[in-house]
Write a structure and sequence with these properties.
Number of helices: 20
Helix content: 40-55%
CATH topology of the largest domain: Rossmann fold
Distance between the termini: 13 Å
CATH superfamily of the largest domain: Glycogen Phosphorylase B
Number of domains: 2
Mean pLDDT: 94
Strand order of the largest sheet: 3-2-1-4-5-6-7
CATH class of the largest domain: Alpha Beta
Radius of gyration: 22 Å
């Protein structure tokens, strides 16, 4: 039986790990792969008691996952990350030398670097899977965190170049990323050295969304929005997500149809977002801005009519696969999006499950809203599209199992 160490530089309790790590690992377990999950926990000593660690180990073991954790350090960012890389590499090296590890699976650059160092220092040489996800160095420069072509960026690119040489296989999120990094793999499925490449977007568990069907009317009654067209956004504002532009889109929808309703589910800045809507002429009866439990989000999406997602379009976002788009479609919602984000242009336009805006202007917003109305009822088409493109089992799970099989055949 094959055994893999999945290395993740996040804490196990974080939503990203619960939705975009653990479900994939459970899919890999279907082929009998033994899974070791290594996470890095912020404030490990403060936020975790010995009993809680033991309980989490038990919970993960019941799922067939052997969980280990190390502390995540934040102060003095570069030094802290360097320390974590060394600690992670030494931990992984001990596991390699203690047992039959076949694959080191690194989720993005830092974890993959841990695995690459550990392998260099070990007698045994497991296969190294570089799960690239996004264009990490470019994301930091596009976000303004690192200066363009500065020391940190150039150092990260040197590390990336070494990892690209050391890895035995690669995962990217989009076809655009594949075209940029591995154009030769478009037909063969392998890079120029014969190493496997898989495109695996951020997928969703469709069973979770199918379970909420029938709640639409009850949620609309709770909110008092029966008979109204509901425009929805779920997630954070600011950063990559274009706050003012989305608020302007909601205002344009209200201009076209004064009876429309804006529904925003977010964890932060709720008062700020409410004030922005009020400044644009919304009354308290025209919007809802609040937080709900993650398990409740699908119910509110099912009660909506149109979803919105505006993300800063830049070089690094060609590698992006926003999970929220798959969640919107899973609930039957057509999407209004801007261009230049991963594979969304083709996905939305080719499948006729939404409308793209060409620029952030009132005219473009009104045109997009009219385009959504012209689409008619596309709920079933949205669900068919997400089942074909983003299903956890039939897309994500199958493709991860496929690349594991290829790596193991070359062992």
């Amino acid at each position: 039986m094959a055994k893999s160490i999945y290395i993740c530089y996040f804490g196990v309790r974080q939503p990203l790990v619960q939705t975009q790590v653990v479900p994939y690992l459970l899919e890999l377990r279907k082929d009998g792969v033994e899974i070791v999950l290594l996470t890095f926990e912020p404030d490990l000593r403060k936020q975790w008691t010995a009993e809680q660690v033991t309980e989490m180990k038990r919970e993960m073991a019941e799922k067939g996952i052997e969980w280990h954790c190390l502390a995540y350090h934040k102060k003095l960012s570069v030094l802290a990350t360097s320390y974590d890389i060394l600690a992670g590499a030494m931990f992984i090296r001990r596991m390699i030398n203690a047992g039959d590890i076949d694959i080191l699976h690194g989720r993005v650059h830092v974890p993959t670097l841990m695995g690459a160092i550990a392998r260099k220092l070990s007698r045994r040489k497991p296969k190294l899977l570089f799960d690239i996800r996004g264009f990490f160095p470019e994301e930091y420069t596009d976000a303004g965190i690192w200066p363009e072509n500065g020391l940190l960026y150039r150092s990260a690119k040197r590390v990336e170049k070494w990892l690209m040489k050391e890895a035995d296989g690669f995962v990217v999120l989009t076809e655009k990323a594949r075209e940029i990094l591995f154009p030769e793999s478009l037909e063969s499925g392998n890079d120029k050295l014969g190493r496997p490449v898989e495109v695996i977007p951020c997928c969703v568990d469709l069973k979770r969304f199918a379970a909420v069907k029938g709640d639409r009317q009850s949620v609309r009654a709770e909110l008092g929005i029966e008979g109204r067209k509901v425009y929805t956004y779920v997630g954070s504002f600011g950063g990559w997500y274009l706050t003012d532009e989305m608020i302007d889109l909601f205002a344009a929808a209200r201009e076209r149809d004064p009876n429309s309703f804006t529904l925003i589910l977010t964890q932060r800045d709720k008062e700020k977002i409410s004030n922005l809507l009020t400044e644009r002429g919304f009354s308290a009866n025209d919007f809802f801005v609040g937080s709900v439990k993650p398990s409740e989000i699908a119910r509110y999406l099912d009660a909506s009519d149109v979803a919105v997602s505006f993300i800063k379009a830049c070089y690094s976002k060609q590698s992006s696969s926003p999970t929220k788009i798959a969640e919107y479609l899973a609930c039957g919602l057509p999407v209004i999006s801007n261009r230049g984000i991963g594979d969304l242009d083709e996905l939305i336009e080719d499948n006729k499950v939404g409308v793209m805006v060409d620029d952030f202007s009132r005219d473009s917003y009104l045109q997009a809203i009219s385009g959504i109305h012209k689409l008619g009822d596309v709920r079933e088409l949205c669900r068919q599209t997400v089942a074909r493109e983003f299903d956890l089992e039939d897309v994500g799970g199958k493709r991860y199992r496929a690349i594991y099989e290829k790596l193991l055949l070359k062992a």
